[in-house]
Amino acid sequence: MKTLLIARENAPVSRYGLPIPYGWYRIMLSDELGVGVVQTVRLFDREWVLFRDAKGQVGLFEPHCPHLGAHLGVGGKVDGELLRCPFHNWGFDHQGFCRHIPYARSMPPSLSREPVLKGLPVVEANRMIWAWFHPTGAAPMWQVPDVPETANPGWHTRHHPVFEIRTIAQEIAENSVDAAHLKYVHGQAAALDVGSTYTGHLRTTALKGPMSIEDSRGKRIDCEFSVDFEQSGPGIQVVRMSRHVSLVMLITITPVESELTHLRFSFLHPDYSEDPVRQALVEDFIQEQVGERGQYVGVVADLPIWNNKIYHRKPLLCDGDGKIVEFRRWFSQFYQ
Ligand code: FES
Ligand SMILES: [Fe+2]
Questions:
Q1: Domain ranges of the chain
Q2: For the segment 282-309, what is each residue's pLDDT rounded down to a tens digit?
Q3: FRET pair for 72, CA 20 to 30 Å: which of 81, 154, 240, 262?
Q4: DSSP codes, 258-327
Q5: Where found (predicted)?
């Protein structure tokens, strides 16, 4: 009788057993954080306090005051360029320096030397707030990619509600190189196995040719598309479609807990209100990405898989599985 051996390396400790990878991650839309607002946010498996000062500058810090430990997100207030602690009113700027202690006869000299609030680098780009997370606090190694369409007044932007998924950033990104699942999960007629180019933190793919989209009546429409895909680290993917219609998809993946991730889609396209054919194509394409239409199902079909699967470090693969090993080799840099 044969014995079925289960490889030790395939026995998961947690469902994934991987740390949070480093990179830039979308925190929220810029419009969602008004001047003078202080918020407690959960990101990267811990709490942070986020605020926007009177000059519009944004800070993101560990939430407990370095003085006697009050929670800055519970009663903390913006006072000009400072975040005031609710306990003794010390004031901290958006870089984490303590700039004012209202009752100190002289400020401790050490306070001018370095920030006392530990925080993350934050930038605003593409009308969004982004934070750089690195487990050892290393400085940013690249920039958030510019998506100029977000600043184009002739373009519309639609932000789809967040998908909260019990998974990790790598699993969501790996989905796009998993050629075989496209047929069995999403109902695509043929697996599309497109090679990627890997350069440093970037993964790029270009695709040209005919594509078919299902319209609201379930009819397939054939059209010409050119698709440029760029993934910038674990958290940002920009998909730019052109030719028949222009459409940009900004896909962001943000770790909230070690195994809970927020996936967001923002769609940008020119104003097609005078062009019902192109408008309908854009609607159909968006539905196909995030919705459920006929037998072709978008990302919602991935959710039950992601919410319940485990991660095999050494999966059993076949030759039709796509470039999973190559992708994992590239992605592993973000765990260094
Ligand atoms: S605990 Fe924050 S000022 Fe004292
Ligand atoms: Fe998928």
A1: 23-133, 152-335
A2: 888 888 888 766 556 889 999 999 999 9
A3: 262
A4: TTEEEEEEEEEEE--TT-HHHHHHHHHHHHHHHSEETTEE-GGGTHHHHHH----SS----TTSBSHHHH
A5: Membrane
Q: State pLDDT tens for residues 57-73.
A: 999 999 999 999 999 99
CATH T-level fold of 152-335: Naphthalene 1,2-dioxygenase Alpha Subunit; Chain A, domain 1 (3.90.380)
Going by alpha carbons, the residue nearest to atom 4 of ligand 1 is 88
- Evaluate if residue 237 carries a pLDDT over 90: yes
Partnered with residue 207 across adjacent β-strands are 227
Picking from 176, 167, 212, the residue whose alpha carbon sits closest to that of residue 16 is 167
Question: Of 192, 168, 205, 165, which Cα lies nearest the Cα of 302?
Answer: 165
Contacts from 91-99 at CB under 8 Å and sequence distance 24+? 92/59, 92/61, 92/116, 92/117, 93/53, 93/57, 93/59, 94/51, 94/53, 94/57, 94/58, 94/59, 95/59, 95/119, 96/59, 96/61, 98/66
Distance 86 CA to ligand 1 centre (A): 7
Task: Specify the ligand 1 atom closest to the Cα of 68.
Answer: 1
Q: Which ligand does the CA of 165 lie closest to?
A: 2
Quick check: 190 pLDDT over 70?
Answer: no
Mean confidence (pLDDT) of the chain:
90
Give the Å distances, CA to CA, from 23 to 44, 59, 138, 141, 258. Answer: 11, 17, 10, 8, 15
Q: Is domain 23-133 in CATH 2.102.10.10, yes or no?
A: yes
Domains 23-133 and 152-335 share a fold: no
Whether residue 67 has its Cβ less than 6 Å from ligand 1: yes
Residues 258 and 253: their CA atoms lie apart, in Å, by 13
> CB of 90 closer than 6 A to ligand 1?
yes
82 Cβ below 6 A of ligand 1: no
Q: Is residue 70 in contact with ligand 1, taking CB distance under 6 Å? A: yes
CA 192 to ligand 2 centroid distance, Å: 12
Contacts of 289 by beta carbon, 8 Å cutoff, 6+ apart: 249, 265, 267, 298, 299
